[in-house]
Amino acid sequence: MFTITVSHESAVPPYEQLRLGIIAQVRSGELTAGTKIPTVRALAAELGLAPNTVARAYRELEADGVVETRGRQGSFIASSGDPTRDLAGRAATEYVAVARRLGLDDESALRYVKSALESG
Question: Where would I find the HTH gntR-type domain in this sequence (predicted)?
Fold first, then answer.
């Protein structure tokens, strides 16, 4: 079942709330690979959002490999499972490679990660 809530009072932009909500449902198993998700227009009407807002969230989800569009058939949760963990793992591996090239020890590299997490 596809249920997303978007708060218009939140400081987080609606497209980002939608994107994060879909990712959360994929991670929790509520949305599984191959699940058809609503059309841009249908979801926009349901949530009281502009179609461009929903389209932006879908584009970003597609770029991250969470959603795949099959032309006239619609948009679906990608069959690759939860690609966000794969993407995060690759980003972490790339960071470690850069940190090693720069000669950072593990403690220093972790300090940078913690600092980035606190400021982000």
Answer: 12-80
